[in-house]
Write a structure and sequence with these properties.
There is one protein chain. The chain has 81 residues and is mostly helical. The chain has one domain. The chain contains 4 helices and no strands. It starts with a helix and ends in an 8-residue tail after the last helix. The mean pLDDT is 84.
Length: 81
């Protein structure tokens, strides 16, 4: 196999991976960034999440649902139904 073909295939895979990350960006952001920030805010404020959840679990619920909503609507800030 020619090395230029291998380089082209690797570049194509890299582009496909980046496109995948951008497509699922709202969900990834909602699950990777929002939970720890939410947990820190809840801890600093001294609030306890309902139903015996840990602050991080509450953050995952909030971040996951907001990320799914943003993925579905195509925007983080559009709250109209």
């Amino acid at each position: 196999m020619d090395t230029s073909q291998t380089d082209d295939r690797n570049e194509t895979m890299l582009i496909a991976s980046i496109r995948w990350c951008f497509y699922f960006g709202p969900i990834l952001f909602g699950l990777l960034f929002i939970p720890p920030v939410t947990a820190q805010i809840l801890t600093i404020l001294g609030w306890t999440p309902p139903m015996g959840l840990t602050p991080l679990a509450a953050g995952f619920i909030l971040g996951g649902s907001w990320g799914l909503y943003a993925q579905w609507r195509g925007s983080w800030l559009t709250w109209r139904l």
